[in-house]
Amino acid sequence: MVTINDIAKKAGVAKSTVSRYLNGGSVSQKTKAKIERIVNETGYSPNTFAQSLKAKHTKMIGIIVPRLDSYSANEVLSSIDRKLRAKGYQLLITNTDQMIEREIENIYTLAKQKVAGIILMATVITEEHHKAIAEVDVPVLLLGQQAEGLHSIGHQEFEAGYAMGNYAGSLEHKNFLYFSVFKEDVAVGQLRANGVLSAFEKWPDIHVDILETSFSFQKAYELALEVLPKTKATYILCATDNIAMAVLKAAHTLNKNIPSDFSLSGFGGYEVTSIVSPSITTVKYGYKELGEVAVDQLFHLINREEVKNNVLISNTLIKRESTIPK
Amino acid sequence: MVTINDIAKKAGVAKSTVSRYLNGGSVSQKTKAKIERIVNETGYSPNTFAQSLKAKHTKMIGIIVPRLDSYSANEVLSSIDRKLRAKGYQLLITNTDQMIEREIENIYTLAKQKVAGIILMATVITEEHHKAIAEVDVPVLLLGQQAEGLHSIGHQEFEAGYAMGNYAGSLEHKNFLYFSVFKEDVAVGQLRANGVLSAFEKWPDIHVDILETSFSFQKAYELALEVLPKTKATYILCATDNIAMAVLKAAHTLNKNIPSDFSLSGFGGYEVTSIVSPSITTVKYGYKELGEVAVDQLFHLINREEVKNNVLISNTLIKRESTIPK
DNA sequence: AAATAAAATAGAACCGGTTCCAAAAAATAG
DNA sequence: CTATTTTTTGGAACCGGTTCTATTTTATTT
Predict the structure, then answer these.
(1) pLDDT tens digit string along A202-211?
(2) What's the CA gap between B298 and B292, in Å, rounded?
(3) Which of A24, A138, A183, B204 is packed most tightly, with the most Cβ within 10 A?
(4) Which residue of A has its CA nearest to B277?
(5) What mean pLDDT value characterizes chain A?
């Protein structure tokens, strides 16, 4: 491996001069040309560690994701990756398998790797999150959730819920079943649900049964198998497209027809909802945009520039075959 | 940040002694206890860069994936990640967006980051791949493809194709349409297809039309829209589940019924094929196992132990609603 | 108790860069 | 042509570890 010392020796200058050349310091035309030639000849490339040892940080951005096998996570990841690459940064992805303690652990791990910034896709923000984020000397940006005193960027969850509730109500259904997720998830478990309920207030005769399940396909499927045979609902709202797919499968298993037996809708805009039959009504989120704005925000944080504490990305309701008027 | 010097000073020993303590060298019981206490008190943790500067490599494994938004890539990624974590290694994921030149670029980037090893999920192995792999001083393991002189691990593609061909032939269909991918992809474009055709040799009266499309859902969908109205085939074979899903959507768009108008099958065992209606016949690949074996193999390479040049993982045919006898 | 062997330790060199400071060289002013 | 200012350069120190060598301390043998 060729080092800065080799270059310096071959060029007959001090290594500090080579370093200055590499980093755009003051070097005369003559020596500049000389060093340039030798650098090109040898294909020299600086040792990242030696640089980072001094610089205290790297050109890497860490991202902590709850799972890799999710449509939304991947959409966001792809767009973040693309944008980061354009800036000459590398993405360091760590996976928590939906275990909260690993989120904390990974915050420390990434900080130790001296990443320039961290993007955290969390579901819940605990005291320990706050502690870890405060301790590490790296800017952290929350994605998809918000929390007091932390910078974040997410979706307009309440608005999404409201749009869906408004649409479902206008179809004149009266009996609803809502497959939600645990309340600790503020974005999905609270805001999204509250949006729906808030829209329903226009129709005082609407009745909603709320059931709590999880993001897991399997869990939702099992719950649906149990609940669908005995429900009187004519419209089933699901907090995510993943849950909606599980209900669809359960309906199929139980020989129920959608939308004639009941209407069905999800949230997310996953591609698969347009492929299945019937295609499923959903709210399409701006995942790509979320990723891009996240990178912008994070770099503002890194450069210690002023940023809004919380940015929200808009979304659109997509009406499909799975929902019909009562 | 507390450094090894701080520890040494507080303990009243030389920093070399602290280093020896940390790395299990010979240290007396008395000083061991003293240093241990101080390390715990201060929460000291060694600077990774300073370590890597000397060590010449990190506890990171790089993986180069063609895309993040694919079921198979994520299955493999999850299992590699899990296994690596258990060994105290970090996974550094880089995405190429299916651009070959980026694969090359990323090999160099990862090598520069001094990863201990690289896992490469490539589709095609070019001269430049060979050159890059030979140049960087890091063990590289191919995943899903094989190439002369390189270590690799993949699926039993030919066998998968054969099993599917054998099953489809035994259903007594005579007219087939096969949506394949470009031939440069040895695993999918050649081995998988050859397996099918090889099985078909048992039935000399079988006729197969082979069409070439890509891994992209959209491209496959467009081709299917164009081809389905005029085909006489009663069974459509697809080289991937993704393509099968596209054909399913096209069939739906064109008001064709599966399986009464034609049978349909894919390859991959993607979860979604069991959810859609009709559920789709496919070959389930051992993605989890692939990831695990890959990590094992890579560590053998890193430790310069003897390894088989090429390991293949088995798979199983799953018969579902989308395929019926003629 | 002296001689010898083994274990523990300190100190220096090193990994490959960046940065500071003072000296040297070049450019400009008087 | 000398004095002054500006630009360029080399050398040393530093980042925070690891490792080698020589020395000191402790343990063992006779």
Answers:
(1) 999 999 999 9
(2) 10
(3) A138
(4) A277
(5) 93
- Chain B positions touching A276 (Cβ under 8 A) are 275-277
Residue of B158, B162, B159 whose CA lies nearest to B189: B158
Residues in chain B closer than 8 A to A247 (CB atoms): none
CB-based contact B68 A90, cutoff 8 Å: no
What average pLDDT does the segment A72-88 reach? 90
For the CA atoms of A281, A282, A284, A290, the dihedral, rounded to the nearest 10 degrees, stands at -170
Distance CA A157, CA A189 (A): 10
**Nearest residue to nucleotide C12 when comparing alpha carbons to its C1'?**
B16
Q: β-strands B60-65, A207-213: how paired?
A: unpaired
The contacts of residue A204 (CB under 8 Å, 6+ apart) are none
Average pLDDT over residues B86-113: 88
Tell if the CB–CB gap between B78 and A92 is shorter than 8 Å. no
Number of CB atoms found within 10 A of residue A201's CB = 10
Mean pLDDT, to the nearest integer, of A62-76? 89
Residues of A in contact with B105 (CB under 8 A): none
CB < 8 Å to A78, chain B: 67-69, 95, 97
Question: What mean pLDDT comes out for the span B43-49?
Answer: 90
Angle between helices B71-86 and B287-302 (to 10 degrees): 50
Q: Which domains does chain A have, with CATH numbers?
A: 4-46 (1.10.260.40), 56-154+287-310 (3.40.50.2300), 157-286 (3.40.50.2300)
Which residues of A touch chain B, with CB atoms under 8 Å apart? 45, 47-50, 52-53, 67-69, 71, 74-75, 77-78, 81-82, 90-95, 97, 109, 112-114, 217, 245, 248-249, 252, 271-272, 274-277
Decide: CB of B22 under 7 A of nucleic strand D. Answer: yes
| Alpha carbons within 13 A on the beta-carbon side of B260 | 4
Summarize the confidence of residues B145-153 as an average pLDDT. Answer: 93
Distance (Å, whole) CA B85 – CA A266: 34
Place of tokens 């499309």: B213
Protein residue with the closest CA to the C1' atom of nucleotide D11? A14
Q: By C-alpha distance, which of A24, A92, A86, A82 is closest to A58?
A: A92
A22-40 pLDDT, tens digit per residue, is: 998 889 999 999 999 999 9
Residue pair B192/B145 in contact by the 8 Å Cβ criterion: no
**Residue B49 to residue A47, Cβ atoms within 8 A:** no
User: In whole numbers, what is the pLDDT of chain B averaged over residues?
Assistant: 93
Residues 6+ apart with CB under 8 A from A269: A241, A282, A283, A284, A285, A287, A315, A318
Comparing CB atoms, the residue among B50, B97, B275 nearest residue A245 is B275
Whole-angstrom CA distances from B287 to A316, B71, B270, B283, B294 are 35, 10, 10, 12, 10
Half-sphere exposure of A249 (CA within 13 A, CB side): 21
Among the listed residues A17, A19, A85, A9, the one whose alpha carbon sits nearest the alpha carbon of residue A47: A19
Chain A nearest-CA distance from B259, in A, is 14
Q: What is the pLDDT of residue B58?
A: 87
| B93: nearest CB among A93, A245, A272 | A93
